[in-house]
Amino acid sequence: MDIEGFPRRFARTRRFSLGVPREFTVSPDGDRVLFLRSESGVVPRVGLWMYAGGDERILAGPTADGSRGTPESRRIGTEPIPVRSAGVVSYATDRRVRVVAYSLDGSLWTVRTDGGPPRRIRTVGPVRDPRPSPDGTLIAYVAEGTLRVVGTDGTGDRPLAVPETADITYGLPDYTAVASIGRSRGYWWSPDSGALLVARVDTSVVERRCLSDPSDPARPPRSFPYPAAGTANALTSLHLVTVVGGRTPVQLPRQARASDAPANSWGLAFEYVVSADWQGAGPVISLQTRDQRTMWVLRADPVTGTVERLSQHTEEGWVEFPPGAPLHTASGVLVLPQVRGDERTIRMGEVLAPAGLQVRAVLGSVGERVLFTASEEPTEVHVWAYEPGHGFERLTHTPGVHTATAGGDTLVLDSRTPDGQTVTVLRGGRQVGRIAVLAEQPPATPRPVHLSLGERQLRSRLHLPSWYEPGMDKLPVLLSPYAGPGMQVVTKAHGWYTAVCQWYAEHGFAVLATDGRGTPGRGVRWQQAILGDRLTPVLDDQIDGLHAAAERCEAIDLGRVGIRGWSFSGYLAAGAVLHRPDVFHAAVAGAPPTDRRLYDTYWEERFLGHPRLQPLDYERSSLIPLAENLTRPLMLVHGLADDNVAPAHTLRFSAKLLAAGRPHSVLLLPGVGHLVTGEGVADTLLRLELDFLKSSLGG
Length: 699
Fold this sequence. Notes:
- Helix 1 (6-12) packs antiparallel against helix 11.
- A hairpin with a 4-residue loop joins strand 23 (282-289) and strand 24.
- The protein contains 11 helices and 45 strands.
- It is globular, with a radius of gyration of 25 Å.
């Protein structure tokens, strides 16, 4: 087992993600499967591939069209966010999956799946999010905030919606939509290819932040809009734009800014466009109020822009739709989320998903057949199907995390299990092939023991060294959770995080990861237990899991306990040594959001409300006021180019620790954003964390 070589391989493979196929599209006739995949497990150049007739071939990318394939930037609002690979970052197709559009180096390219080389189409500027019309005759794209359209043959390039000021864009999502809501699109074609539903985003009311590179003082700072908790959001409206130049606004409910509203009604305006689509039933839009307790699903008249309400959803905590919902089947049956008791479920017309399922995502429909993922046990996610006359069927059975993409009678199953990842192609329910997963395997083979700990049956993973035998000396403990909303790390699936935990274990730690309250997959009450307090319930669950694990495993030394994490878990790690130095003896906190007022509106106000109305909740959940409590070794790490969790979180916290006379370590990473990748950075950081924890815990 090459333990010493693990950090370098971890960095070279971008957390073992290179070579993994993703973003599948299946043609309606089931004959073709498109996907993205890099050349190998160590080469980041990504190509567009097609699986057909049992064979794979590359359609487009750095090796297929002659482009240099230098890294692109995916942008949030008006700001570039570096992607982790070069080549084809994303793609879109027409209805029949014959015409494919993508961008390379900011240029627009097309390729046909029925033959012919990739073709570059000249445009007026750098291209973002190109999408063919359903009939394949036109391609819409965004350049410098303008939504444009050009013929697939390269003729007739013209603007459809031009921004009125520098603060306005057409056809792009705003920062909050991408970073927190999960909506990455800003326009949608009509089924007849004659019009588009287009988002207009105005950021003039949003406060601006600046990021600079202290290692390059000659470079001017970068300014970008960032809606921090309690401040104004971008103003998003929707418009119906025809390809011949007509334009009609969609008559959405009033969207007042929070600062304009009385204190007792700050959250009642519909400020968030959560989802939108244009299927056969017409444009369907999901709107959410600022306080996130109400969601409306609307259908817009494609001619007049008037709207009718299809459904209303209200919860005391917050309303949450699974990805992919709402959805219409071919006959127009509406698939909607619903809360049933403590379950997040869905209904197809009047039919509810089976009791006992926590629905995770709606994957799509073929005819009247609806595919979705759901959990009966929170550590597993399985693919289900519902079809009138046939009822419900679970399509996956191996323990793990599964998802799927369908077209015609073809189903592509993407499965992550304890043995690794596989992508299986089925046709008519019978396996006809597999799409190759080229990812490198980690040299530290994960050896987790899955546990349910304490009275709350906390789902946990325990990693011990492969060389450990009963009766040996006790081991220092390292907690390595995420434990925040929206993500689980304790699943019956192999992942980069399990490999990292095993690597620490091989260096002499008992490594424990626990998903506590606030994490998804265990019901509404479990998720909403963190309302008003982002830290205490989460930290209590980590401690309960630790003590319960120590009762069952003699290897655990409760006198030497460390904790590490990044982003939310970095916040948790720092909070652990501040609140409970009796339990935790050292912490590594990467990119910790130490001041909850500095984080964005949608994600922070979901749990803590408006800071003007719930200031004590923000005070309770922030770490800066607790700086003088630090008595344990603490290592803070932050990328100076992080525009998600701003470096100010760590810098302000460090300044407060310094003023209180509390020794601590700070490692700042110039040019590094919220995601740490690349040789010389990701690998070195792992080793530095290990050295710090060993010296602090005597490991």
